[in-house]
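>> received
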Amino acid sequence: MDNALIATSHSKDLCLGGERIGYLVASPRCADVEELKGAMVYANRTLGYVSAPSMMQLLVADLQKVPVDTATYELRRDGIFNPLKKMGFEAPRPQGGFYLFPKSPIPDDVAFVSAARRHNILIAPGSGFGAPGYFRVVFSVDLEMIKRSIPAWSALAREFGMSG
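>> returned
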C-alpha cells in the first residue's frame, strides 16, 4: 500500500454542499509524495479553495459522529424526480447525492438551461460537467420550494413538446 491515497469531501456525507471541506491523505511511502502534495496545493489554490473558515472546521469536527437524515433527501429527490419523470424527462433515479442529471429534451443543453431560466428554474448545463445534452438539478432546497416549482417545470416541459 505504498501508493495509497484516500480522498473525501464532506459535501455529501455531512450535507454541506458547496462548502468544499474534505481531505486527501497520501501514504508517506508514496512515490513522489512531495510532488503530489505540491500538485494538490496548487490545484486547491487554482480552483480558489484556500481553506474553510475556522468555525466551519470546528463544526465539521463535531459532526463526524452525527448521522445524516437521508429520509429528508429521499423526500426531496422523489418530490422532483417523480413529477419530472411523468413529464417525460429521462433520468436515472439517484441513489445518493442531492441532484438529478436528466437528459435535455434538445441537444443544446445550454439553450435548454436558458429556457428554464425564463421559467425561474435554475439548473446547470451538463456540458459544464462533461456531459453535453444533459442538465443538473439540485434538490438540496426545501421540499416546499420543490413542490412550488412543479408548475414551472410543467410549463417548461410543454414548451419543448413534452407532457406537462
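>> The beta strands are 5-9, 22-26, 99-100, 124-125, 135-138.
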